[in-house]
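look at this record:
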Amino acid sequence: MEPSIKFILTLSRLPSWIRSFLSFLIQTLIGDPVTASTVLLVDNKYASDVTTLTIERDNFREEFYNWFRSGGFDALIAPVSAIPAAKINSTTMVSALAVSTFLYNVLDWPVGVVPVTKVRKGETMDDSRWKGREKEGYSKMFMDQVYGSGKVYKEIQENGEGLPVGVQVGYFSKVTDFIRL
């Protein structure tokens, strides 16, 4: 099992008072409200909770579909990841890099990934693009794993020449839309 998923599952099995304490420490000592709130969210769910979340998901799907259609959009184009393709096993503790794909999974949309460019030798990213962004809703711990001490992005900068950089293209249609085609 991927280490970050195993970590989340382990957190979910801890008593709520331990998760509350961990959340407090992460918020207070590290200053990461995103990770602190995530620690509180991962717990076991009752069947009634799952039912409620399923209804909320279905309502969100309907709202998003209505917005998509009312805007006259043909497709939704989004980044595949916050970084170019990473080397195998280099993202073990940063599975949240897949967050840009979550929308498609929640909406149950088919998606195609199209490469648009490649990592060029000597390309770098200034630290100011990620440091201090926690106040904008970014996780300090996650950003540090990707761009700082975790060195996921540094590995791409140093050895990633030629790695693909792509976009996701998603199109959702209800059955009635397919019939009109």
